[in-house]
Design a protein that fits this description.
Number of domains: 4
Oligomer: single chain
Helix content: 40-55%
Largest sheet: 5 strands, antiparallel
Structural class: alpha+beta
Number of strands: 7
Mean pLDDT: 85
Distance between the termini: 76 Å
Order of helices and strands: HHHHHHHHHHHHHHHHHEEHEEEEEHH
Strand content: 5-15%
Shape: globular
Low-confidence stretches: 1-19
Amino acid sequence: MVPWFRTVIVIAAVIGGVLPRAALIVGDDAVDVTAIAGLLELILDIDPDSARKSLDVITTKVQNRELSAEVLAELRGKLGARLAQVLATETQKSLHGAAAALAASLGDPSASKRCAAMVFDADVASADRLAALQTLVFLRDRSLLAQIPDLLAGNPRSELDLRGKFLDSLGRWEEPQLAEILVRIYGRLESELQPRVVELLAQRPAWSHKLLDAIGERKIPDRALNTNQIARLLASQDETLVRKVREKWGSVRTQRNPEREQVVNNLRTLLQQERGDPLPGQKIFDRLCGQCHKIYGNGQDVGPDITSNGRASFEQLLSNVLDPSLVIGASYQARVVVTDDGRALTGLPIEENDQRVILKVQGGKLETLPRVEIETYRVSELSMMPEGLENQLNKQELLDLFAFILLDKPPSDPAARFLPGTPSAQALPKP
């Protein structure tokens, strides 16, 4: 190809976003992998940003097991040598993380070692470290097991988001020892990560046994398990697990409980008489509500951002928090999925088609599940936000939480005001 004409093609592909979009459909019978590899080959030296996005997309498809053996073999043959060349070139360092993740996912052992070296390298960008960790999980690299305590509980708070995303990625690894490790370090983790550990352990029956044992031994508080997670465990095919759950919690409704109205009335009365402190309330929000909701820019984008949604008045907020299944918007109807390897997930659908389902689950992670791996799939009649918040918090914690979410701005903002209809008791001096 004439050099100038080749450059024009590449520039057109970059401007039009052709390459990343083409990478999205790698694996489709109608897609020419040779053409995709050719475009990638051209763009690697001209537009590293687009090249990285394309490498990331292909890696995700490989790790989600969306590609056939034939397509994987073709990608390995078309890209293997070029990825190795990128990893050996210092001037293409910005592509090393993405290239190592894809090469390792396609079976290159030297790239796997490269990923292992990146994990603890503080000089490596967080995105590349996370990609390396996710790749080692995909490869079921057992040498990673010994490093998990330090990765999750030994790093600075500044890496909390990175550690949370790494924790979420462990769900794909059907490794019994993982549950033992996570139970052991649970008490050392920040309060924001602890609910994510519980959610992870509730996904697989073998892990759930360890979770229930830890609750029985008071290593994990029983209130750490919410009603939706309990219901999911009760739906398990593991009869011993179901018996353990019933012995501890009894039966759990799969439909809205009309008695929630009384819970709303009780808390309304409490808030008419006493108030809490919004500062510790903010921490409680981060630990529980922030796993799925954002407020003032903080938290996870799973359910509605409650900065401006669901808080038009005191009564609306009270109902939404304590009786979440009273009204469920169509876009927030959760799906409950069980895969053929026994993993159970609850999340909001981002994509549903004949090939795959993408769910956004607690913590904000996207889970891509090939249809061929899904054993059961149903729409939940309950909100993804579980009932029974009052059972997860003591009286003072409830007061503190509401002292925070009843304000229309962060408590540090002098202009913060209470929502319309908030009881006058909330304006009393802080306790």
